[in-house]
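Q: C-alpha cells for this one, please.
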Amino acid sequence: MRVLNKLFKQNKKWAEKIKESDPQFFLNLSKQQNPEYLWIGCSDSRVPANEIIGMMPGEVFVHRNIANLVIHTDLNCLSVIQYSVEVLKVKHIIVCGHYGCGGIQVAMENKGYGLIDNWIRNIKDLHRYHREEIEALKSEKEKVDLLSELNVIEQVANICHTAIVQDAWKSGQELSVHGWIYSIEDGILKDLNVCTTSLEEISQTHRLR
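A: Here is the predicted structure, written as C-alpha cells:
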C-alpha cells in the first residue's frame, strides 16, 4: 500500500479537533516557534514527549534517538542543542530516559546486533564503570532500571560538557539541564535530582576556558 489512508484520516480528525477549541491555533503556530524546553528522549514509540508532559505543538523542541544518548561526535544531536540554545534560547534542556529501554537491555548483553553495536558502545562503557553496583542487584529488571537512570545522569553531564552550553552560561544565559526518567507501566515521570544550572556545578576537568 503506497498511501497510508488511515493516518491521513486520523490527521484530519486531529486537526479539526484542535481548530474546534482554537480556530486560530495553526495560523498562530505557523508564525513563530518559541519553546522554553528542549527534550532529548528515546526513540521508543511509547514515550511521546509532548503528550506525557501535557504540552501542545510549539511548546517543546524535541530530539530523539535510541537510548537518549548525547554523544560528542553526533553532529545531529549537537546541532539540535546548538539551535535550541543559541537561536531558540530555550531555558531548559531535559534528558528523559525510560524504564525497560531496549537500548539499555541490549547494551547489557554480549550479543552482536550489527550497526547498533557502535551506538550502544557508550552504554556498555557506562555499564563497565558501574558493574559492581549494578551486579549487586538481584533481578534483571532492577539492573536495567538502574543502568537506565545512570545513563540519563551521564547524558546530562555530556550536555553540560559541550562548548554550546558552557558558552551560554558564560554569557549569562538562563539555562538548566535536567535528568528525568519515565515509567511506561504507569505513565509517571521521575526527577532524578540531577539539575545543572551553571559552569561552577560541573567538574574542573570539563570546564572550557
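A few notes: Strands lie at 37-42, 60-65, 92-98, 176-183, 188-196. Residues 16 and 22 are 10 Å apart (CA to CA).
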